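Internal ticket #5521
Category: modeling
Description: The requester needs a full-assembly model to guide mutagenesis choices. All entity lines are attached below as received. Residue total reported by intake: 533.
Assigned to: D.W.
Attached entities:
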Amino acid sequence: MSEPMASRVLDADPTFDAYLDAIEGALDLPAAERGDVRDEIAAHLRDERAASVAAGATAAIATAKAIDRLGDPKRLGRELTSARRSRSALLAAAGAGTWAAGGAAVRGLVLGVALVTGVMVVIGVATAVAARVGIVSTWILPDQGWVTAIWGVALWVAAWQGARSFVSVLAIRSHRPAEQVRPYVAVVAGGVVAWFSLVWFQAAQNLGSVLVLALVPVIFVVAALTGSDRSVLPSRAARRASLALFATVVIALPLLLLSAGGSVQQESSAVGRGPFDSMEELLADRGFDIPGRYVADPPATGDLQSSIDHGVARVEIGNGAALAARWHDLRVEAWRSELQTGALDRAHPAPFATAPLTSAGGALAGSVRVDRTRDVSGYWLVVTGLAGDGQRDLVVSVGGTNTTFTGSALDWLAAP
Amino acid sequence: MLDGRRIQAQLLKGTLPLLVLATLRDGELHGYEIVRRIRERSSGAFDPSEGSLYPTLHRLEGEGALEASWRAGDGGPRRRYYRLTRGGLAALERAEQEWATFSGSVQKIAFGEAFDV
């Protein structure tokens, strides 16, 4: 409906200009709509004046009559504002704004992925050429931070585009200036985006991913607070460009994934498979004197089982009675270990998670969550208990593996 | 006391949407032409305030009874043309029936059975 403002009527009559300015000043509408209303009334004034002049009136009288017939400009501006608005239009605009924001976010996501993928392709090709001429030995992009970078840029572009689109469509469809809808989009939609980004979305987290997710609502709010009531619907050229970018992503991304390395899964070394002949030797070498006093004559634990499921590591000891006879306050402890060697991380001389062992039909069992502590990339489980002299002993060394913090960004921020 | 002008102004205000819809039944027009047609068809009896016309046009457009489009004038400024939508045509038919009932009732009361409808 709206046309470019370049076609705005600029009537030469200063009286008309002043009158039109007064109407426009009273219009509480988006800028493009104000321009349209001004053009419509300007055309009317010219027609009215021309008719009066044709009927014999002087230009001054014809101008005054035309203005008089339209009446008080402020009242007209207010009535036109009111006429263009309705509660149902506001609700429809909110729905349309949400839909447009979703579409813009998807386009932004594709754009963001394409942007970073394009950079990666350039780097990959340059590295491959360098490898070909012998400057470097490999052309594989080894850094898995690229994945975070791709999704980071994509989500930020999506948040920006979504917010801008939301403000634009809501303002235009509800016939309100951008200044009026910006705070609502920033607070309400920004709150929803923040909830999705920081609370709802559960995944493997690290500092990079949390920064990415934390910036999503910030970017959304900034974009919303600076959004305009101009149309941001993509042009045909923009839609074509999006398709081209999408094709690039579909072709380039799988190629990159093929060339990228897989995730690292490392089992910590165990006795018999590593360079150690005995558990005692391994524990001494890896620093497992930290948890407590090493027990030279460990009891027979019977059936010892450990497992991990959705970040919960569980230990079961079949011969619970043998342990309970010598120790009390038995508990399972998770210690940080180094991902590459499996050795205890001596920078943290305390377990990051503990839980009591409880008796179940003669056996002892306990579980600890090992995927909710920041910067823990590997863990080692031990069972400790208080001896009669009050010393906490390392009763059983169970084993460990690598782990990744899993949860929402807020969980990561609130985690110990 | 009842003032003739005031009564006409009040009646006109209430019936302006009906008059606009009826005027647009024959085809699309811009605002100034709508006023002129109403004036001509009523032989000057109805001369709607143009300050009321435009809010009425925009309200009817918002309600879906009218569609508007811009068109360049012949050497002049662009103009906004209004046309009836299918919903607007249905609204016009309803309004005409209601007006017939209403005006018939007024005539019955004011002038007696001679104007029975």
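Resolution: model delivered.
Comment from assignee: The mean pLDDT of chain A is 80.
Ticket closed.
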